[in-house]
């Protein structure tokens, strides 16, 4: 684990996030889709900035495939005063995503109260969306430890976890990720019906780039 920006103390009770960016993007032709640029900014950088603007104090980025290229984009990111940004390398990025999740959760400090788990390829998400999700989380019923936005039946991200749930996922055996935890603990899960598709819109295939372009959102690959 290497520290990129160390500009804030660990604050007990602060909101922290794990950003998953270790995948191979095989459906995108083995290109790092989180480096697609919207308005000149790579998606991974854009998402970190939005998390920070929404009040997230600490972000752990889990890298694997394309770690050098994504790491270079993180190194070039404008300074975000007050943000602690760490990166963790998954030594086996071919493993299921729950392995990257466990690594990211393990890198969070004790005293964390709320954890957001974010994907690195969501081009429509805004800082206001993240803020709205945290406001919904603050209104959760007693006993709820896992919040997932859903739109038109499609699950979205980020998901929000209580620290006990984050610890349970961190300590789960291989192959036991968020989906299995939800199935085993349905009484702790809140599937919030989001009013728009921004939480559930991502880019997995070239066709997704074309679909977004038709909707007026232009994504471009960075210069080689």
Describe the structure.
It is a single chain. The chain has helices at residues 43-53, 67-75, 97-106, 127-138, 163-170, 178-184, 206-214; strands at residues 2-6, 15-21, 37-38, 41-42, 58-63, 84-89, 114-119, 146-151, 154-155, 159-162, 189-193, 219-220. The chain is α/β, with parallel strands linked by helices and 224 residues long. It has one domain (2-220): Spore Coat Polysaccharide Biosynthesis Protein SpsA, Chain A. The strands form two sheets. Strands 1, 2, 5, 6, 7, 8, 9, 10 and 11 form a nine-stranded mixed beta sheet that branches. The chain has a three-stranded antiparallel beta sheet with strand order 4-3-12. Strand 5 (58-63), helix 2 and strand 6 form a beta-alpha-beta unit. Helix 1 (43-53) packs across helix 4 (127-138) and helix 3 (97-106) packs across helix 5.
